[in-house]
User: Fold these one by one.
Assistant:
Number 1:
Amino acid sequence: MRVQPDQLTAFCATVLGRAGVPEVVARTVSESLVYADLRGVESHGVVRTEIYLRRVAEGMVDPHAETRLVQDNGCTALADGGNNFGAYVGAVALDLAMDRAQQHGICALGVRNSNHFGTGAFYVQRAVERGLALIVMSNASQTMPSTGGVRPFLGTNPIAFGFPTSRQVPFVLDMATSVVARGKIIVAAKRGETIPPGWAVDRHGNPTTDAEAALEGALLPLGGPKGSGLSMAIDILSGVLTGAGFGPSVRNMYEDWAEPQNVGHFFMVLDIARFLPLAAFTERLGQYIDLMKAEPRASGVEEILYAGEREYRLEAHHRCDGIELPERLAADLQALGERYSVNWIG
Amino acid sequence: MRVQPDQLTAFCATVLGRAGVPEVVARTVSESLVYADLRGVESHGVVRTEIYLRRVAEGMVDPHAETRLVQDNGCTALADGGNNFGAYVGAVALDLAMDRAQQHGICALGVRNSNHFGTGAFYVQRAVERGLALIVMSNASQTMPSTGGVRPFLGTNPIAFGFPTSRQVPFVLDMATSVVARGKIIVAAKRGETIPPGWAVDRHGNPTTDAEAALEGALLPLGGPKGSGLSMAIDILSGVLTGAGFGPSVRNMYEDWAEPQNVGHFFMVLDIARFLPLAAFTERLGQYIDLMKAEPRASGVEEILYAGEREYRLEAHHRCDGIELPERLAADLQALGERYSVNWIG
């Protein structure tokens, strides 16, 4: 089933609203979810509406909380999200960090007491539209053993980088610190396929190519000790530094119903113009991309793409032609709508 | 052959001095090289003395240049290294960035017109000793194809993170964005050893385990498109933003004798105390590490280590018992000493 992104956003926002989420929060959260679907990152898309609603219903998220500063030093600050939705807390925090970066040249803003904040590209996009560079990180609940360990200990703690370019498409690198997203293993398991070696371990910590065994086990960090260290560094900035949870104390959104997640984020916004004129920067980055695209290509490669380009094209395509929702997801959303007396799209 | 680190530093500094490098520059560069050997990162150690001397002799490095600020905004700044040695430029830049971070809470300092700056841990160590957090990046000459390409296009652009802990050993993650550092392949080639599959391709883009063929070919980025994107993001901050070279315009230290390297760096220093008291931060990070170390271990793993711990132990061991230099390297250094009328150690 194909749906227009605006309709999908309105549907999700209305459902969230009926569940008691204030309009501005419902709107921001829905925009974040639909934005992920627009970019082909379905794992962070409207498929999460249901779990988000359950978190509110169980009192695990407080959709009325304001995000407030608990430390403020101008170019550095620390915010407390009051346990509101991560996408809302993150959007409020980003707006503040962007204002501060334009005022001071840079802003490093830590955030604690937040929740799953969706796709990093949602924030990156907003920063590059204002001609700013952004590095954003978040911690996450445990899914990967650290190097030498067996059980999930580290989150797949994501990091995203965004830079404006002279081209239509900004540079947007939005990555988890695992080799692959768990969603890819779910897909392989559903299809009865094996997974390549190096993606995951089973629940005994042994390497496996069995997708089902991998789902009971743990994802592996990107590049062994490097990914393990990178995931931990992101957690140190997002969790240890901010007063949020870190490691085991970041709660699982799907499994922990006793306590809020206490996710932490870290935003670093840079005013490019303090280094060189924005146009010179975007021009230089455009040249870089041109050179990269002109390189000889590996066999079977039609075009060399830079970070965010594939997702940008998907977004453009989906904005025109609508987002294709799998039948089961559409049915789930429709059922969710019925529960809150909200008509499904169409 | 075993040498005391102080003797090795003095030897290298004296040789560099005889080659016309001012004392403070010679000292800093030698300390950076020996620091890498102390930590077991031989690829960035005194093995590079010879190429550093050749760069000076050929006029490719100006050891007399001062590092000066070309943009200054307090919490952001841009420095020009005047084409001096990277370790010296980096050390001067870091001192400035640390002062600024203590004054303002954060400092993002870009550096252009520099050279190969050695191991990132050299800078990280200095920052954590002052209770500061550091993220430092550098670009490097082309050694890896970007995803979809064949020829070397991106550098193995390294990134390092450092945080003080409540334990004796700080968190120091110092990593190249390749599967392994090129230096490790240089060491293997010098020793006549093969390299594991997955590290590199030959000059035709085919996988190889031959270290010499790999040096003529290309390293592979960490985790495919993720490492490729991360390398480019580091180059954007270190090169595009600073006015240094980027991509192909960062010259190869070993192969390009017509132009300076024009390497760029990016330092981001954070004053932890602006977020929470330093002791609370180090205590929290200590707890994190304790929890990680208490995890069940994979078979054959005696202890779960965090980033920088193995290197710290090597450093302590080498400071006590001396650094073991391979016979061939010791002979090369001795010959280098003779050329500059400097007695070899012992």
Number 2:
Amino acid sequence: MRVAVLGVGLIGGSIGLAVKRRLAADVAGFDVSSSVLDRAAELGAIDQKCDSVVEAAAGAEVVFCSAPVGELPELARSALGASSEDAVVTDVGSTKRDLVAGLDARTGGERFIGGHPLAGTEASGIDGARADLFEGARWYLTPTETTNGVLYDKLQRAIADLGARPQAIDAVTHDRVMATVSHLPHVLANALVSQAADTLSEESERLPTVGPSFRDVTRVAGSSPAIWGDILAANRESVVSAVERIVERLTNSLELLREGSADEIAAWHGWAGDARRRLLEADHVGGPLHHLQVSVENRPGTVAEIALALGSAGVNIEDMTLSPATDMRTGSISLWIAGAEESERGAEVVRDLGYAVTLVDGSG
Amino acid sequence: MRVAVLGVGLIGGSIGLAVKRRLAADVAGFDVSSSVLDRAAELGAIDQKCDSVVEAAAGAEVVFCSAPVGELPELARSALGASSEDAVVTDVGSTKRDLVAGLDARTGGERFIGGHPLAGTEASGIDGARADLFEGARWYLTPTETTNGVLYDKLQRAIADLGARPQAIDAVTHDRVMATVSHLPHVLANALVSQAADTLSEESERLPTVGPSFRDVTRVAGSSPAIWGDILAANRESVVSAVERIVERLTNSLELLREGSADEIAAWHGWAGDARRRLLEADHVGGPLHHLQVSVENRPGTVAEIALALGSAGVNIEDMTLSPATDMRTGSISLWIAGAEESERGAEVVRDLGYAVTLVDGSG
């Protein structure tokens, strides 16, 4: 297999390293900076240094676009133009809606599937790249109703093979949710830093030590300005709405803070702690794999529909195969889901979509 | 020396352990819970289990009130009533204004000095107590113009001996600054958790993995509800004002988020990162100690005035002595300040108050 990585910084370089270690595939690399490309080759993240997108994408089965969010639309279009009809093209950007909406059937959009790995980004650049960066990490994929099911299957399998956990999510929902759980924290951190700086200068205090809560809450303030400028601009609409909503929420909390007793405020605080634990613990599902067989008509959008419905219900697909393949009128999709309860719930979700589902016993 | 600790939970117990290890003083302990008191004795945090505030405070030179914020006014008054005329009474609560304002001359207020150690509180209860909890930690003290200078000196020395770094700050300023750098982060974290929970349920998404920024920003959400209910209620006015200001600030940022280019948003982000670094680095002062001798009239408020002015200018007093002592008409205060530049600046601040200052060479 041949994989192309377009842009070999922290994420692209880590994809290259992980592909070489875990997929035993050849990696063709391209980067606008030739020194970055050289370094990626030195570190063993790529096998072949390419002078252009066309050269890198030619003959690749999977093409990863790993550039700043603002450059992704053009890069993805070039990659689709340069790659073959059975290649899947994906990206790793933090916002998905505009990118996915901009790639329609005329530009080969059925071969493009948006992606977003939730992987650490404290380091930056190719020198921070690590083969295990995606180990156990959630990796969102945003198939649409025109997405080619066979290519979706190929991509999600490649990502699972990299050690990550793929999950389908609708691109618009992805951006709205990310606006609250990822982009808004950055806006709040910036606002808090700026208020603290003003407060201290108004009070003519040089406050030598700020408490641990300030450090925690503001840790993300000002991280990677260029990247975050791009992300917040690309997800403008959802971010603005998330900020408007938190302003409303804070304004509402003023009543409690003004009039509430210590006990009432404590109750609010306790509720928030419980809610946070529930949010963070939602991820802990496990158990033996169960095999679901779904009878489907082989038409565009089926795989996306099923993957999105399961993703939205929080049911994680550990593995997936399509059988028989692409040119048949009807066929079946095999899904593997961890845990008995989880797979029962998955079966129900798929049945609710109108498909016949068989729960094949054991680990299939 | 004898020290009394009223309330022997995490902070009170740690004070007991630190006093015994570093001050070689006897610790008399009292707690409303006899099982907590027993445990404190078992762990070696106190030498003597007392049945009442009166029993514990009798004969103590320094009395630490270490109860929940809501119970401090009554406890401090009892401690002042039960302790001798040369005993200093202090507390460890997170808010200071109302407590300090409520203790006037009639209740022995000149012997009460508010305190607030900025020490970790992830653990709670006597079993989390540690002798080194205050090592290097900032410990705010809030003297007023009626504060007895000799007692201030005694207290700040005891706190420095515990390994902490005392700093004088006006009680009202303390509460306003804490509202922004400590209490507001908790309110923001709660609001963000509640918005995330709502967003996910509106989108019918069970989002299995939230990014690291969400974890960081919400870490303090819901920590110790009872304690934080008390704190937010006690500092109600400043917290409400801090929330109102961040609402205004976030509302203003909407214009940038709606209209700004990626570069403009990146510039804002970069500014916030720099501001945060400046805020966190303000603490790193060092160098050899310099000795400042200040000629003063021995009247109430002098020590507080000088300590507050230096604290407010961010000049840290590493050590302090009054000589000669209490009953003279005039005398001098010796201050030790780390770093040549810092001590020059300290001398200037004190001169600006109208005092004669001599910079004694070397480490005095």
Number 3:
Amino acid sequence: MPKDNITPRGDNYSQWYLDIVSQADLAESSEVRGCMVIKPLGYAIWENIQSGLDRRIKATGHSNAYFPLFIPMSLLQREAQHVEGFAPEVAVVTHGGGEPLAEPLAVRPTSEAIIGCSFAKWVHSWRDLPLLINQWANVVRWEMRTRPFLRTTEFLWQEGHTAHATEAEAEEETLKILNEVYADFSEREMAVPVLRGRKTDREKFAGALRTYAIEAMMQDGRALQAGTSHNLGQNFARAFGIKYQTVDNLEEYAWTTSWGVSTRLVGALIMAHSDDEGLVCPPRLAPIQVVVVPIYKGEAERATVLEAVDRVVASWGGRFRVKVDDRDQMTPGFKFNEWEVKGVPVRVEVGPRDVAKGTAAVARRDKPGREGKQFVGQDVLADHIAALLEEIHNSMFERAVRFRDDHTVDVADYGELVEAVKTGFARAPWAGTGADEERIQNETKATIRVIPFDQPGKAGRCVATGAETDQVAIFGRSY
Amino acid sequence: MPKDNITPRGDNYSQWYLDIVSQADLAESSEVRGCMVIKPLGYAIWENIQSGLDRRIKATGHSNAYFPLFIPMSLLQREAQHVEGFAPEVAVVTHGGGEPLAEPLAVRPTSEAIIGCSFAKWVHSWRDLPLLINQWANVVRWEMRTRPFLRTTEFLWQEGHTAHATEAEAEEETLKILNEVYADFSEREMAVPVLRGRKTDREKFAGALRTYAIEAMMQDGRALQAGTSHNLGQNFARAFGIKYQTVDNLEEYAWTTSWGVSTRLVGALIMAHSDDEGLVCPPRLAPIQVVVVPIYKGEAERATVLEAVDRVVASWGGRFRVKVDDRDQMTPGFKFNEWEVKGVPVRVEVGPRDVAKGTAAVARRDKPGREGKQFVGQDVLADHIAALLEEIHNSMFERAVRFRDDHTVDVADYGELVEAVKTGFARAPWAGTGADEERIQNETKATIRVIPFDQPGKAGRCVATGAETDQVAIFGRSY
């Protein structure tokens, strides 16, 4: 049903997003400029995201560890490009325990510098490599314009940091994380399809050799960078002295990588799937996958229906994350509305007639109204729900793929690019420079999101320079 | 076997602790004064602690959420006792994004102030209560003398924050957390027995009505406060405006609580159980519960033994957290030593004769040497290990209880107290004041750890004032 307090996407996409965050009770602003409070439902989604990522990060051989929140300014300054990129965004602690500090401390904007110091102590020989570490932490970047989840001064993330004996191994790690961890998680758990590719030099991480990214399309056609993986070359190893003895007893600098995703993924999840009725949560990450609403009038019906509900839910034996909404003071309509706004994938209704017939009504969140409602026998309900959750995931993913494909245009020249990025992505032949990218951004607000791995082989004339090229780039406006 | 690089407990307990932390590779110092790096094994123990606590926190009805790292100084100052307690320990951010801030921000030393602001927005009616929130976060307290895990400038913790309609409900919550979450976790998962009780006014949390704590005894007889739970009364509700409308339409301040445990528990775990050979990790929290060491000479034996090891471990089907140490370049003796230092509860050795006989040798970490070694048939190995892990937990717990009882003296007068706290706890009749506590601390370094819930009913003459009293207090030197 339409919601008074949610601006339709078509009217104002940006306000719609803020309305979803607020009405679904995911987050709110705080007393601190640019910092948000992540409320229980928003945090429960993040916990499920953490769990899916952590499993993949450990399965690919990484161990979690924890490094200090503070980084002495002198350390941050060791890698020249790194400090140039991050110094303007840093929050600085100048006093501790009532005294001015001898050296100011940066609140970590990312941890290459402090982790680099540890790696220099941990790595001595080729036997110590690869060193595969991940950290779950909060970081702070002083942002001017913030939006809940998408861009906040403090955010939560994981940051992987690894060291390797060769450039090839560092490159392999960088790509493995992008493909086996980030893209796999995004598509298989968030139901958000992503383009994979390399960032241009203009867009890469401060201090990296190469940055790879996954990019998703939101429902307004804009891009959201959902994860990045950096091959840092030997830049940080040189700056922090991460050296090892090779098999042949030579001293070499290690090759390092870093990679991260953040609470921004919650924003991606919201913007990729939700509708004008509220949040639509992908089933594998939904804190509540199934809400059961008993329907009754009066005490006798109440007892009969609740007894049936208890019996049915008990028979599922923890197969799903279930909430039985047996609040007495609210009507079923109020409850339907609340769980719709909060994005619960499957709603089960049980009334007295269902009890008599041994059935239940099952409604799916991603297809509102009659279209998504079915009556199902209680004896087969668990299997039905399990299959339905799978179907909802696949349907959400396919819809998002279709939307992206429908909003991606192969452009032949700059005029077509200008048009295409108004509503989505432009796939454009590209042989330009950073200066060309900057000019295009100034004129169209679009940037190169990635040079995709998936290349057509033959492209055409570069939209900036007119030179023949075999390479395409994906242009889009971004969050 | 004795370790060259671990100082025996009897020689220097404090150095022994540092040696265990370093030799078991749990943590190390960092470039930032008072902040440690938690290394993978230390962090894996913390992850298991988190998991056991989080399960209990959710089972008692609490939801996780996340609040900002920064607290505007003016907010921290709203509750008078609170700021008095924490202001001297605060790290202060004065610059952000290259500019001085209009108002300095405290890095949270605890989150009552910032969470109080949110609670004031979230609570309107009695229907919104109880409000049961928990946060996993890092906090910073500027400490002068630090020790890994036990006292560090930055540490990791959970902090629960709840609001209730009545004092009785807040009190019930405070005690439920102490008993059902903290004490239950400590005893059932850490195998660390704890005394439960109330803190004196002198020792309570800054701004609390009453503070309860669990206190454990370390192997040097000193106390370690392992968790605290505070009934905050209406102090914070008044300071932050957490008001609700009662059933009778009256406006009332809510009653709030807060409670926390931290990475200090890792220190408690180490100091309660470990020995001169290294870490002894309680089985339920051990990142590796069973290490399997294949024993062979030459290629043919190697193939036979590894095939058997793979088959046996596969047959356990994920029942334990297992590591097969099949590193070729190390001797079995080297491996035994490494896993002994790192505290793995059970070691399984499989050699060619074991393969021929269908057996394995099983050694337990908590009883080193011949005493703890058994030969077990491979067909019953899984059940044997499962039972052994239980037995190890129980044995570690009982040993710790025995140690505490052996080092706790019922004292009749001050002279006996002075002696008793040199080696352990004194259980003393108590009717003194804060000034009496201070004097005793100055003279003996011992403080009242708790007024225990477990009271004898009839005590004797107060060790400070000589007045007849029915109450005993537990005195001890503490970490």
Number 4:
Amino acid sequence: MANFSEFDRIFHPRGVAVVGVSSDPTKYGNMFFSGLIEADSNVYPVNLKEKEILGREAYPSIKDIPHDVDYAVISIPASGVPKVIEDCGKKGVKAVTIYTAEYSESGTKEGIKREKELVDAAKKANVRIIGPNCIGICCPSGRLSFFPGTPKEEGDVGFICQSGGHAEEFAYEAESWGITFSKIISYGNACDVNCEELLAYLAEDPETKIIGIYVEGVKDGRRFIDTLKDAASQKPIVVWKGGITKGGSRAVASHTGSLAGSPEIWSAVIKQSGAIMVNDRDEFADTLSAIRYLSRPSGERVGIVGTGGGASVASTDLCEMNGLSVPLLEEKTMEELGKIVPPLGTSVKNPVDLSYFLMQNFSLLEECTELVAGDPNVDILIVHIGHLGRMVKFRPSDIEIIFEALIDTKEMMADKFPKKPLVVILHPAGSMNVEIEKVKLKKRLVEEGICVYPSISRAARALSNLASLEIEVE
Amino acid sequence: MANFSEFDRIFHPRGVAVVGVSSDPTKYGNMFFSGLIEADSNVYPVNLKEKEILGREAYPSIKDIPHDVDYAVISIPASGVPKVIEDCGKKGVKAVTIYTAEYSESGTKEGIKREKELVDAAKKANVRIIGPNCIGICCPSGRLSFFPGTPKEEGDVGFICQSGGHAEEFAYEAESWGITFSKIISYGNACDVNCEELLAYLAEDPETKIIGIYVEGVKDGRRFIDTLKDAASQKPIVVWKGGITKGGSRAVASHTGSLAGSPEIWSAVIKQSGAIMVNDRDEFADTLSAIRYLSRPSGERVGIVGTGGGASVASTDLCEMNGLSVPLLEEKTMEELGKIVPPLGTSVKNPVDLSYFLMQNFSLLEECTELVAGDPNVDILIVHIGHLGRMVKFRPSDIEIIFEALIDTKEMMADKFPKKPLVVILHPAGSMNVEIEKVKLKKRLVEEGICVYPSISRAARALSNLASLEIEVE
């Protein structure tokens, strides 16, 4: 395994070469190159024929670049890759990302043989390989990006992602989760640099506070477990394991050529290691943002404040189905609630149902949440907001008032109950215009550091995962 | 139990009275009244003091209305309700909705006693009660609506909903599911008219093709089972049972005062009856729209077409975790796919991964879907679309092209494989602008009769529910 400083050099290279850049902006070589220019990297195009690409001098070989180059991205047909690796070795390049595919993941003898040749060439040249069949590294602090438009903001979530597609999509999507990344690494077939090495690096990396992993298969199960356990004792880790079913494992074979293991083994291994295991894209996102924005609660008892009896019943069911509990409040709390919540069609038990009185007096939200949060039976707060459709249609200004009431509630919680996490649910709204207003409202709330979920189910899963965590974020 | 024509008169009344209408537009009496005016109902306000409300002559008592009145909505303090019921009897009113709360759901002796008095008054007056503690009936063909803004379009889904909040919210929200309603009935505490009677009515109702139920508790379990079984043999039925957990059952007690039963009993009962049981709001919506728009597949084997290796692996896992399977395609199908899908970084196994070639040639979507749908191993088609963020940012016109490619694919399927359901996934997109574009794209696709889901998980659950159905929609 490489040591920390060797890896850190790769993520913060003095210069970067892109081998296989054409002038065609729809080709991947060009996209990598443009992305690195946009990220303000010291990036050099390598192309046998062109003299200049996008205003930068092009070189026929990486060896001809008259600057330090620590990292290269290779996007040329497979047959030429071993020679480029040899040249990289001569140039002193530490690591290459190989975008080129048709290696072991193709399942063909030729593909497997080609991948073996890569590994041999890399060993001989003393160059580390990321991939093949991947998009490599995005690291804002190292001015490395995948493509034009990849977020540039330095964040604190490190994301190890075997799939290039997920790596790219999540890079864009994470804005809506309120997440920014320290590093994203798409490592494809993992013929050399693997999940465990990357995990050990991120565990040590001071830029990374939380680690997310999308992994399809590992080649050395024991080593993966040990590394995961070690890393999970230092930082919160969320693992999404692709290929957990019979069919999924077959799909993995044609995607990254990895072995997949059985669902039972994976589930047991990940949980025992102290990491959180999630099952889909939404749960991955929701759990990361819960860890990013919320304190770890001291228990699993949820206090719920919102409107609607049906919504109260459903919220309770969905919390309890996801391993949380919705306890009765103390008599004293209910008495205090009773003094501010009118009795008709409401409830001051848990969930607290403010019914339509909320729409008449939005400050009830903060007042009731404070009373519920003060109850010793409650560890976690859920505030759920429905009837956005009616608001947008009849009293659009209510959207602004609800925004302010939620901000007040969040500030009150941060001030008075910093150890009790608060999440907000914006229930589905309906018509296109209302949905668009909801997207806008959600963005503003996320920008204020509030965890917003689109359903009780998703919130309850994320909160249950958060409550299972054994360590705090640094 | 009332017979069909007695009930049908209530849903298509000659005249409607609203008892307790004030001039204050934020009061519920006024909202019911305004909603019924907007729905073009023959509606009459009853108010002791006012002579005219919203330009309509007001009457001091229902008995003073000089027109036929078959149905009344009562929104006055509990103490006055028995007298109004007595008057309704004298006027020949068939049924009343009682919005007023603080009956059995309050859990107090007084509340329980008040509810008993209601039942006695109704029996004596020969008037049926819907509620109390509910918002009653929405029936576009009968010009009955809950409130201003309640959808007026006549649809074919009948929705029996114990919760008023869910009834109102779903009335608005269903636009985004592509669903319109024949009837929505919020029936609250069910002191008289109950879920079983309503179910028997909708089973017979020619306007209703599909039935959705949100039920918290029933008072006669045996009768509920028998009615459900009978109705489920005639029409597809989706049941969301609120109060299935310990905490949820406690919440039910303070919401509609019903007994809740244990989760095991409910789950077994509903499945045995031939109805579909769902666990949350999203699954309820997703399943209803799957039944509404898709043919019942002849099996559970899914063919998947989209982009991204990681997305392919995840799709497969999530289908199989939800009881579907993702089989290998026949050699012949893969050969045909291989002729049109370039080999690099793609897959022609199932899932078919078009990688970035899709972005270069969107007609691959229809062509590949046709080949996969023609495979005898495939019963259901999922098309999933990612990278919307990149499209919106760099080639906004791609959104239009993808819309057209999806319409072509849908038309091809309807034409050549009418028995194989097709659903479309629009993966999460990220930035606010992209999310807004996605909301718009989804709306257009839903208007074209395409089932669109926001994640593979939600699609897989809905499809699995659809596949479990034992009867077709009429």
